[in-house]
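pasting for ref
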Amino acid sequence: LSVTKEVTRLIATTFEWAEDIDVLRAEKAKEEAEKRLKDSKMSALDIQVAEYKLKRALTRLDVSR
C-alpha cells in the first residue's frame, strides 16, 4: 500500500476472478471454520487461523454472488 497526496496504490499479491470461485468449496470452508471457532480448547493462534479462514470464505462467497 502506498499513499501520497495525489495517488493511492494497492498491489495485491493474490487475487481470484469471481467466476473462478468454487462456491461449494467456499461454503464448506465457511462451515469448517465456524465449527472450529466453537471449539473452546483452541489456542490463540488456532483461533486467529480459523477467523482468517472464515473471513476468506465469506469474502469469496460475497464476491461470487
